[in-house]
């Protein structure tokens, strides 16, 4: 990390970003800042404007209004001084054709003046050592994403942008990638990622901007967003464990409803209610569901979240 970044503590400062395509306002007056060392998520459904924001912030797309600084420097017009300090995950389509994973990464490394030994070390780091001689078109979705991440990291940037790094890969590969991203962050790198997965934002991001239709609706730590809802915990009691009237009468229950004989109890005092249900021997098959970012999105937009 440079002393300048460490001192300022601010990796990104985006102010009033706007992008219009014809009649469509793809990004509308978006402002946010990202602290050094954060994992910052931009979350929203398809078409919300996530990629457009990321490209303006990276200095790849010219904003119609607003501005952005990265590591204290303006990102537009394209700023050569920033290039060694930032990493941008490439889409698979940006790979060179017919190269093996090792050749691919060494080629990207050479563009930054990075030697083959460091490239090969990154291939190992992202878990692709055994695939070094495999051509990129033969890699699985998760392996392609790992290679794309290695290409973004091979020159050791302090600020890394990832556009939907876990899109279209299986759940186990996603979790492995989360571990990789966490380890990159643990070294002090700032990560900015877009995602349309609510659980990914919740599990990975220190703070998340929830977007819809070109605007940021809320921005905070995932747990703070959920807390801000003040939503009740819902307890699903299996059929025949208690009656609806019994459940409704338990101290601390806000509401009890019968949903096809499962009694759904809403409460803001879950430990007391659970203790009472335990005392009545009603725990078998019981499920507890706290609010999630999905509920936050529903609350903000009035619509169910559809990635
Ligand atoms: N070059 C372009 N010309 C016209 N419209 C565009 C262009 N790029 C993006 N758009 C539109 O702008 C809106 C925002 O697109 P953007 O790709 O930023 O969304 P996103 O949140 O990244 O979506 P996704 O998750 O599908 O990638 C969409 O309605 C999209 O169709």
Automatic annotation (TrEMBL):
Coiled-coil positions: none
Superkingdom of origin organism: Bacteria
Listed GO biological process terms: response to antibiotic
SUPFAM superfamilies xrefs: P-loop containing nucleoside triphosphate hydrolases
Any one GO CC term of the record: plasma membrane
Protein localization: Cell membrane
Gene3D superfamilies, alphabetized: P-loop containing nucleotide triphosphate hydrolases (3.40.50.300)
Pfam families (alphabetical): ABC_tran
Topology with respect to the bilayer: Peripheral membrane protein
GO molecular function: ATP binding; ATP hydrolysis activity
Keywords in alphabetical order: Antibiotic resistance, ATP-binding, Cell membrane, Membrane, Nucleotide-binding, Translocase, Transport
Principal cellular location given in the protein's record: membrane
Keyword Nucleotide-binding belongs to the record: yes
Domain ABC transporter: 12-238
Family: Belongs to the ABC transporter superfamily.
Protein name, as recorded: ABC transporter ATP-binding protein
Natural source organism: Nocardioides iriomotensis
């Amino acid at each position: 990390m440079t002393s300048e970044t460490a001192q300022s503590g601010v990796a990104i400062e985006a102010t009033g970003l706007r992008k219009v395509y014809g009649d469509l306002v793809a990004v509308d007056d978006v402002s946010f800042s990202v602290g050094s060392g954060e994992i910052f998520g931009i979350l929203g459904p398809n078409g919300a404007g996530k990629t457009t924001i990321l490209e303006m912030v990276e200095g790849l797309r010219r904003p119609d209004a607003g501005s952005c600084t990265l590591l204290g420097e303006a990102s537009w017009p394209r700023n050569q001084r920033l290039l060694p300090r930032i990493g941008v995950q490439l889409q698979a389509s940006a790979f060179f054709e017919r190269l093996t994973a090792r050749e691919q990464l060494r080629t990207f490394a050479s563009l930054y003046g990075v030697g083959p030994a460091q490239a090969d070390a990154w291939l190992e780091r992202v878990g692709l050592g055994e695939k070094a001689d495999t051509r990129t078109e033969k890699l699985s979705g998760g392996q392609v994403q790992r290679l794309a991440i290695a290409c973004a990291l091979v020159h050791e940037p302090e600020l890394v942008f990832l556009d939907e790094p876990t899109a279209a890969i299986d759940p186990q590969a996603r979790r492995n990638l989360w571990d990789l991203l966490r380890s990159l962050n643990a070294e002090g790198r700032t990560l900015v990622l877009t995602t349309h997965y609510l659980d990914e934002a919740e599990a990975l991001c220190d703070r998340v901007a929830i977007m819809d239709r070109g605007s940021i609706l809320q921005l905070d730590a995932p747990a703070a967003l959920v807390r801000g809802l003040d939503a009740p915990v819902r307890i699903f009691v299996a059929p025949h464990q208690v009656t609806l009237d019994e459940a409704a009468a338990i101290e601390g229950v806000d509401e009890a409803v019968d949903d096809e004989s499962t009694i759904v109890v809403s409460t803001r005092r879950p430990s007391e209610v659970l203790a009472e249900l335990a005392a009545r021997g009603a725990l078998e098959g019981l499920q507890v569901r706290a609010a999630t970012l999905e509920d936050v999105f529903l609350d903000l937009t009035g619509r169910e979240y559809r990635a």
